[in-house]
Design brief:
two-stranded antiparallel sheet, 79 residues, 3 helices, single chain, alpha+beta
Amino acid sequence: MGLVSAEYEQYLTSDAWKALRKKTIESALFRCQRCKISGNYATLQVHHLTYARIYRELPQDLMVVCKENWVVIYTCILL
């Protein structure tokens, strides 16, 4: 079994998530919120800080990070 559900994986391909992701990256001014490196839609990730409101996230539920910081965060979650 994978770490994420099929429903969540489907959500990440939805128009609703794509719009929220775009808005979140734009609100962060295309910068990683950990290291402040500039990026773009392809190089920045939107990380969930909480899954309490999954599918109806609030802005404070999400964080924009570069791929390097996303790997650090994800690795810590797996430990």
